[in-house]
Amino acid sequence: MNKLAPPLDPPEELIVGHTDLSPPYLHASTFSAGTTVYHHTTGSTHREPSSSFDRSSSKLQSDVSMPAEVSSTQRPPSSQELPVSNDVPANNKEERQVDDIFLPAAAGITTMAPPPLSDEWRGTSASLSRRSMGSSSSSRIPRHVTDETAFGSSRRGSRRVSDTRRLSQREDIPDSRFIYINNPDRTNENYTMAGNKVRTSKYTFISFLPRNLFEQFHRYAYIYFLILVILNQIPQLAVFGRFASLIPLILVLVITAIKDGFEDWGRHRSDSRENNRVALVLDHDGQYTYKKWKHIRVGEMVKVHANETVPCDMVLLGTSDPSGVAYVETLNLDGESNLKSRYARQETSNQHPEVGPLTGLIVCKAPDRNIYEFSAFMELPADSQDIQIPLGQNNIILRGCEVKNTSWVVGVVVYAGRETKAMLNSSGAQSKRSKLEHYMNRETGWLVVFLVVICFVGGLGTGLWVAANYDYLDIILYYKKMSSNGGNYLFSGSVGEGIFGFLSCVIRFQIMIPLSLYISMELVRLGQSYFMIRDTEMYDAASNSKFQCRALNINEDLGQIKYLFSDKTGTLTENKMEFHTASIDGVDYSNTKVVIEPATGKIEGSIAPEDSHFVEEILTKQAWKPKVGAKVDPDLVHLLTGRPSTAPRRDTLFDYMLVLVACNTIVPTRVKKTASGQLEMEAVNSMEDGSGFIEYQGESPDEQALVAAAAAYGFTLLERTSANIVVNVLGEVQRYEVLGIHEFDSVRKCMSVVVACPDGMIKLLVKGADSTVLNLIGPGDDENTAERRESAEQLQWQAEVREQTLKHLDKYAREGLRTLVIASRVLTQKEVEDWHFHYAKASTALHDRVGMLRNAAGLVENNLVLLGASGIEDRLQDGVPETIALLREAGIKVWVLTGDKQETAISIGFSCLLLTQDMQQIIINESTIESCRAAIADAKRKYGILPTQKKRKWFSIKHQNSVEASIPTLNDSHYENSANHEEEMERVHRSLALIIDGNSLVHALSKELEQDLFELATACRVVICCRVAPLQKAGIVSLVKRRAREMTLAVGDGANDVSMIQMADVGVGISGQEGRQAVMASDFALGQFRFLKRLLLLHGHWNYQRLAYMVLYNFYRNAVFVMMLFWFILYSAFSPSSALTDWNLIFFSLLYTAVPTIVVGILDKDLSHKTLLQYPQLYTVGQRGETYNQLLFWVTMIDTLWQSLVLFYVPYFVYRVSEVDLYSLGFLFCMAVVIVVNIHLAMDINRWTWIEHAAIWLSTLATFICQLVMDALTIADLLPNHWVSFHMCGELRFWFALLLTVILALLPRFCIKILKQRIWPSDIHIAREVEILGHIRHQSQPSLELHELPPSMANSSPPSAAVSV
Amino acid sequence: MARTHLNDNSPNLLQTPPKIKSNKPKYTKFSQQELAGCKPVMTPTYVMATLMLVGAIFIPIGSISLHAVGGVVEIVKRYEDVCLIIASTLQNITLSTIAQKVNYIQDPTTPKNCTITLTIPHYMKQPVYVYYELQNFYQNHRRYVKSRDDAQLKGKFVTSSSLASCKPEDFLDNYPIVPCGLIAWSFFNDSYVFTLNNVSLPINKTSIAWQSDIKVKFGAQPSNFPNNNINSTNSSTNSWIGGGALNPGVALNHNEDFLVWMRAAALPNFRKLWGRIEQNLYDGDVVTINILNVYNTYSFHGKKKIVLSTSSWIGGKNNFLGCAYLCIGCMCFLLAFSFFLMYRQWPRALGDTSYFSWHNSSQAKICLEHL
C-alpha cells in the first residue's frame, strides 16, 4: 500500500475538493490489510474538514469493527451507535465517486490487453489513466469533477441537515440494508448477503448417508425394526436367524436411499444448470462482461437483454426505452403470463447506466417474501445535495422474470441467491404424510402398549417360574441349566431370565406392529394410483395429458378433503379473455358468430356473402396482422367498413374503437416467422414495412382481448411508446399523440388517456366499471360544455343511449361477462392546459403522487359522452360451475385464492356459481392492522359470528346431520337453544361471502388476527382472496390446516401456486399452459379442474375406504395372530415358544394373508361410480373419518381378543391331554388363523370379482399346500415338523376342530355386523342397498339381486324411498 | 401458434406431420374398475338362511361326536406317588422332600419296581392303547424344543461345530453325543410289564411311532448315548442322568419309544403311546402293571400316569368337540330366530334414501328410539 502511495498524486482539480481523499483509491483492492489503514485515514478526513465530527480515531476503529457485529446478527445498529454507522456510507460515497471517475478511464486503456486485476496493476493503471486522462476521457471527467467539487463544498454546509434527515428516513425501514451501486465489495463488506448461488438439493456427497438415514428413521417403524434386529443378535434372544433378520431392514433402507439419491441428483443438476447460466455484469473496467450467475454479487450492475431471465432481484437503473420502461413476464413468480411494466427512475436512466457505472446508494429492507411489495430509496449525488428517490414495487425486477419487449435493461442487484423473492417463495417441499397414516401411528402406539403388556407378562412369568424352581433347575429335565461340559448354559438368574424372557417375547411377538402393513400400503397405493392414472374420464384431450400421480403416499387423503383452495387463472378459467359483445351507441352487437383469425387469414363461422367481403377487406388492409383472432359481429363490420358512410353515427363507432385501441397499456410486439417456422419476436420496435404478426402483451388480459377485438374490426394497434400510439385504422396508419395516461386505480375504477388526434382534436378516452363511469356521463354545469348544451336533440339521444346501454350491461352481466363502459370526451384547449398543468405536477411529485394524479384525472373525467359498453368473456374451463357445486354438496369448502384484481375475482366468483346475487359480501380491503382488525370485528358482529365452540363441534359431528361440521352459534341467551334461530344463523352464514385482498391478509394473517380471520372465514360460505402473493396463499392454507385440523387441498397451475400446493395436505397441479412448476410441486396433476370431481368423489372415496379398512384389518390380522401365540406361552412355562414353525411365523403376514388384503385394498369397491356421483354427500363419510377412527379400532381390538381366544382355546380343549405333538397343533393353529383371517376379510368385501375370489381362496389353499410341501421336504430345518400335516389331515378331529374354530371366532362379528346394518345403517350401507336392491323392488327382477346392474338399468330413475320389507 | 408451425414446410420438418401419441389410457373394464362382480348385501333372508345352515350342520356333528366319544373307555392311573410310597415302605426311608425323592430316583442302586392293579370297568374292544401320561412336563419349552439336531438324528455325520443347537447336551468329554440335545437326553424310560388276570399280557410295541418318522426322519445309525456309560460307572455322576439309555446295538429308527418321545408334545400335560393291547378286555378283568419307576419327575412335581384307552374316530375320551358343536348349533338357530323377531319388530326398508344422514332422517331416529 505504501509503495503505491506516491504515484497517487491527484490532479490539481481534484485536490481542490478532496485534499484528503487520496488513500481511498485503494479501497477497491484487497481489504485484508488495507482496511485499517483506510479507515484511519478516513478518520483523519473527518477530523480535519468538519469540527462537527469530532471523533477520535479509536472511535472510528469501532466503526470498522461494527459492521462485523451487524453482519453476525443481521440487525441494524443500536441507536447509540447509529450516527457512526450512518456516517460510513456517506464518507464512502465521496471516496467511491472519485474512484468511479477513474474507472472508465482505466477501462479505456485496459480494453487492449486486460491484465490480471492485482493491486499493483490497479494502482498503476489508475495513475496512468489519470495522467492520460486529459486526452482520452477529459470530456467526461471534468463534468464529474465539477459536480464533485460543488458537491463537496456545498456539502460542508448542508451536511448535518442532510444527515439527520437521512437518519430519520433510514430508521423508517427496519433491518435496512445499504447497497452501494456498482460497489459489491463495499456492499458486501458490512452485511452477509447471500451470493447468487442457489441450492435446492438436500444432500451433499458427504452428508448424504447420515442425513438420508436420519430422515428415513423418522419412520418410527424403522426404529422399531432396527431395535428388533439388534435384539436378535443377542444369543439368549435369537429367535430368528441373525442375519436373516437384518435383510428386510437393509433392503428397505437401501432402496429408499437410492430413490432419494436419484431425486437429489436431479436437483443438483438443475441447480448447477441454474448457477452456471451467464449474465452481463459490469466489471471493474466499466464494461459489461459475462459472468456466471453464481458469482453475481449484491451491488453489481447487471444488464439483461430481451428474452433473458433476470438472475437476481434488481432495482432498475435504465432500460432501452428512453422513458425507462421495461416489460417483464412474471410467469415464474405469480403465474401471470401477461407482461408487466417496470420503470427505471429517470434520474438514473438519464445517466446512461448501459455505458458505464453509476454511483449511489440504495437503502432497502431485509429480504422478504412479498413479491408485491418493495420499498426502498435511492440516494444519488446531485448538484446541491444528495437527492433521495423513493423506489417501489414498480422499480424492481425479480429473479425468474423474463425481460420482454425491451431490448435491454440495466439494474443493480439488491437481493441475490436464496434471498431473492423467488427463492424465498419456494418453500422447500415438505414430505407429506397422510392423515390416515398419522392416525395409524396413534393406534400403532396402542399396539406397542399391548405388545409391552404381553411381553411383560411373558417376562414376569419366566422370571417367577425360574425363581420358583431355582434349586432344581438343573434337574428339571426340560430345562437343565448346566451344560454337559460344565458351566451354566444361557442362564442368568431369575431376574436376568425375566428380562431376557421379556425381550425374546418382543422378538417373538414383533409382528404385533404390522411392518408388512407399510409395505402393503405402498402396494395398495400403487394399485390405486394405477386406477387413477388409467381413468379414461380423467384424460384431458386438449392438453393430451392424463392424470398424474406424483406422490404415492397420500392417496387416501383425497377422500377426506374438507377445504379446497383453488387458484383462479388457468385453474378455474382458461386464462383466455374473449371479446364477446359490444354495445355501441345503444345498439347491441352481440351477434358475434364470426371468428376472424388474421394470423391465418381464416374466417370461421357462418357469414353472409355480402358481409364476407367487408371482413376480407379488413384482412387485406392489415400489413401487420394480430396473432390472436377475435369474434366479430358482421353487422358491425359492415357498418365500419361500408364505404359510403351509411351509418348515421359512424363517428361514435370510430370513437368506440379508438377507446378500445388506445385506452390501455397494451404493448404490441412484432413477431415474424423465422426460417424454421417458429414465431420469433422482433427485437426492434421500429415501424418498418413488411408482413408479420402482432402479439399484444399487457398486464390485463381484458385489455388484450379488447385490443384484439378492435384489430379484428380493423383497428389495429401497431405501436405504442410513451408518447405515441400508432393505429392502423382500416388500412390507414394514424398516429395519435399521448398527452397523458390515468392508469386504472381501484378508487376511480376507470382508466383514461388523453390523446391528440391526427386532426388536432384532443380527446379523453375512458373505459371503466359501470358504477363509476356512468356517473361521469352527461353534461355537467361546467360552462365549457356550452356548445354541447345547445343541442337538446343531442341530450335526448344521450339519454336513450344510456338507457339502452344499461339494459345491455345488465344482460351481459347476467351472461357472466365482464363489462366495461366506454366513453369519451373532446377536450377544449383550456381544459387541456389546465389539466396538463396539474398532470405534469402530479407525475413528478414525490409525495402522494397517486392522489395528485387522481385529482388531475378528476379534472377531465367528467361530462363524458357515453359511447357504449363491452362484454368480455373470461372463459371458465369446462364443467367448473358444476364441479364446484358438486364439491360443495360433498361438504367441501371451496376457497378461491387468486393474484387477480378484486373485481376480476368477484366476477369469476359469480360466473362459476361460487357467488350468487343473494349473498352478503364481506369485503375487507384494509392496509393497516388496526383497520383490518376493526373490519373483521365489524363483520363478525354484524353477522353474529362467534368463536367456534368445541362442544358444539363435537355435538354436530356426533349427529352427523350437518355437512358443516362447525356452525358457530350466537351467544345470545334468548336464542341459545332455539333451533329456529340456529337455522336462521345457518342460513345467514350460508349466504356470506368473504372477499379479502392481499394487503389486508398481510395483517389478517398475523398472529394476533389470524384466529379472528379464521373464525370469520370458516363461517362464510365462500371465501375469495384476491391479490395474494404466493406465500400468502400458503399462509391461508396453513392457517386452515392448523386451526381447523381438517384436510386441505390446493389446486393451481402456475408457479405462484407452488407454495400453496406444497403447504396443503394434498397439492393438485393443473397441467395447463403456465409452465410446469405447479405440476412438479404437486402430488397429483390433472388436465382440467373438473376432474377434481372424479378424483375426490370417486377415487378419493374409494382410496380412503379401501386403505382405512386395510389398516384396521392389518392391525387386527397381526394382533389376532400374536394374541393366539401369546395364549400359548401361558402353557409353555412362559418361554417364548411357538407351536407354529418359524417359517409359518414368517410367512403368515408375508405370504398366507398378504395377497387378499392387498387385492381388497386395491380393488374393493363399496359403491359404484354412479351412486357416488349421484349422492355427493357420501363423500362426507371420509371427512368424518367413519371408516377409520378410534372407536372402530377398539371394537376391532375387542373382536381380535375374542377371535384369538377362540383360535387358541378351541384347539387347546380339543387336544387337551392327548398325544398331539407341538407341530401338529401348530398346523391346526396355522390353518385356523389363516382361514379365520381370510374369511373375516371375505365377510367385509363389498364387491366380489373373480380377482377377489382368486385372492382369498387361492391364498387359503396356498397356505395349506405350503404346509404339505414343507412337511414333505426333508431339509434339516423342516424335519421337526415332518409329515405332521398329512398326519393331521387324516384325522376327522382336526377338521371338526378347524370348522368349530372358524365359525365360533367369526360368529359375534357376523351378528354385530348385521345388527349394525339394521339399526344404525351408515350412509354407505344405505347407498349400497339403493344401488343393489333399490331398483329391483320396482322392476321385480330378483335374479339380478346380487349382481352389478348393467349400465342401462343403472341409469334409470333414482329409487323412490320407503319400500318396506 | 402450433398451426402456423405445422403449415410451414420448413426443411427441418418431416414430410408427414408428426404423429402426436395420445396419452389417453386404454379402456378396459379392469382399469375403469368396472369388472363384473357379485355385491353381496345382507338381506334378512340371507342372514337367517346362513345362521340356520350353520345350525343345521353343527347339531348333527355335535350329536354324532358325543355319541362316538361316549363309546370310548379310558382308565387312568397315576403312579409316581404310589410307587414312591411303596418304595419308602419297602426300604424304610423317608421320601418327603423333593431332594429325597430326587436322590432316590437318581440312585441306580435303589430298587424302583412297583406294581399297580387296575380293574376294567367296561368292555374294551381291542386295540386298547397304552399311554403314559406326563403332567407338568413342558416339552414345549423353547429351551427344550430347540435342543435337538435333526440332521444328526437323520444319520448324517455332524461336525462338532454344528451341534450348537443341541446345547446344553452336545458334547461329553469332547465327544459329540449321538443323539444329542435335551430331548434325547431326557428320554422317558419307565417300563411296564402287563399281566391280565395273572396271565402275561403281550403288548405290541411296533408301529407306535409314525411311519414317516421311522422311514424318513430318523436314520438307522447306532447311538453312543452318554447315559449308557454313566449307568455303568459309579454313582458320583448320577446327577447326569436325565432319562433312559439307548441300546447302542439297536438302530435309532427302530427304537420306536425313542421316536415317540422325540415328537415333542404341544402342551405340558400330554400322553405318549407306549404300546397296544391287541385283545379285548372285559368288564371286571384285572390288569396288573409292574412298573419300573426310574424316570425323574419329582424335581418339577411332574405326575406320571398310565392310561389304557380305546379309541374312536374322533379321538379319545374328550367331550369338548361334541358339546361345542351342539351348543353353537343351537345358538345359531336361536340367533336366526331373534333376528327374525327383530326384522318383524323394527322393519327398515332396504335402500330407503330417507335414512341418509343428510336427510336428517326422522325414521332413523324412530328406529333408534325403539331400542
Main sheet strand line-up of chain A: 14-38-37-36-15-32-35-34-33
User: How confident is the prediction overall: mean pLDDT of chain B?
Assistant: 81
Order of helices and strands of chain B: HHEHHEEHHEEHEEEHHHEEEHH
Strand order of the largest sheet of chain B: 1-11-3-9-8
Please give the count of helices of chain A.
48
Compute the number of strand runs of chain B: 11
Average pLDDT confidence of chain A is: 74
- Global geometry of chain B: extended
Q: Hey, roughly how much beta strand do the residues of chain B contain? A: 15-25%
Low-confidence stretches of chain B: 1-17, 231-239, 361-371
Can you tell me the number of structural domains of chain B?
2
Looking at how many chains there are and whether they match, the oligomeric state comes to heterodimer
Largest β-sheet summary of chain A = 9 strands, mixed
Categorize the overall geometry of chain A: elongated
How much of the sequence lies in strands of chain A comes to 15-25%
Total helix count of chain B?
12
Helix content of chain A: 40-55%
Sheet with the most strands, sense and barrel status of chain B: 5 strands, antiparallel
Residues in helices of chain B, as a percent range = 25-40%
Which two chains form the greatest contact, residue counts included?
Answer: A-B, 128 and 125 residues
Q: Termini distance of chain A? A: 105 Å
